[in-house]
Amino acid sequence: MIYEKIISRRTIRRYELRAVSKEILIKCVDAARLSPSAANRQPLKYVIVDDEALLEKVFITLRWAGYLPNYPISSEEMSRAYIVILLDKNISSRADYDVGIAAMSISMVAFDEGISSCILASADRERLRNILRIPESLDIMLVVAIGYSAEKSVVEKVKNDDIRYWLDDEGVLHVPKRELESIVKWNGF
Fold this sequence. Notes:
By secondary structure, the chain is of the alpha+beta class. The protein has two domains: 2-151, NADH Oxidase (3-Layer(aba) Sandwich), CATH 3.40.109; 152-189, putative fmn-dependent nitroreductase like fold (Single Sheet), CATH 2.20.180.10. It is 30% helix and 22% strand. The chain has six helices and seven strands, in the order ααβαβαβαββββα. Helix 2 packs antiparallel against helix 4 (96-112).
């Protein structure tokens, strides 16, 4: 069951104008909080953004799709919530693994609730820090956009080692993924 959910979850960048409940957002962060943490240090903190006055301000600080400039096109397609994952530098100077695990936990809990997400590392961090009044003792690690999907995304086989995703004429996002046989070896190389 978990395997089927993981392989069917897709990154979504265009969302319906429908709010995500506070209960689901709390559930996402609680799953991240309880996820594995290196040496159990638990250096991550979270800012949940669902205030209408902040959504567009956060949206414009994010870079959404490297292979599709100006996508999503407008704030009408933006997610209806964001979870900003922060590193508390007073606890640890690094959280490389923790942050990825937390982001995936958030993403999968949202998916289990019928909600889509996009994990974003590319952002104007200083501008985002100012908008959300994030103290200097906290580093912005990732932003997880969350909302109800307004697009379809499908997996394609990688051809000619080209991993660039693209939109077709119907607006379906095609995302090439390497085949399992090309990335795994048994018992060594």
